[in-house]
Design goal:
- This protein is α+β, with helices and mostly antiparallel strands and 130 residues long.
- It is built from three helices and six strands; from the N terminus they run ααβββαβββ.
- A six-stranded mixed sheet has the order 1-2-3-6-5-4.
- Strand 5 and strand 6 form a beta hairpin.
- The longest helix has 15 residues.
- The two termini are 12 Å apart.
Length: 130
């Protein structure tokens, strides 16, 4: 899915996100020994908007971004930065056009071994097929 290309571009080019996570922005899963904090993103579902005469030229894509950090405060800061970098944004690259991104929800999770705080951010993306 090319939606991830647009998500990565918006996140990696945002000064606040890259200031907090550096270049630790990963599709689906992080590297095994990735330093905290970092962001993962994944395409959850794609809903095409087919027409009577052909395939969809505009898809609705559910995207999940997970911000991982060692402390609640760092997780919160990174989560807010990711939301600000994506919510109500659009981007056009060579292979993808994202018309809009809308923030949908957030959920905080904690793991004990190792102790890690995560916020799961869900977005609805409207992607035009190039």
């Amino acid at each position: 899915m090319k939606t991830g290309i647009g998500i990565f571009s918006l996140l990696s080019n945002d000064a606040t996100v890259s200031g907090l996570a550096g270049n630790r922005i990963f599709p689906v899963i992080s590297g095994k020994d990735a330093d905290l904090p970092f962001v993962t993103y994944d395409i959850i579902t794609v809903q095409p908007d087919d027409t009577k005469t052909g395939a969809s030229k505009l898809d609705s894509v559910d995207v999940e971004c997970v911000c991982h950090a060692a402390t609640y405060s760092a997780m919160s800061d990174l989560g807010n930065a990711v939301r600000a970098a994506l919510d109500r944004q659009n981007v056009t690259l060579d292979s993808v056009t994202i018309d809009s991104i809308q923030f949908q929800s957030a959920d905080v999770e904690v793991t004990d071994k190792p102790r890690k705080f995560m916020v799961v951010l869900e977005f609805k993306v409207r992607q035009r097929m190039n």
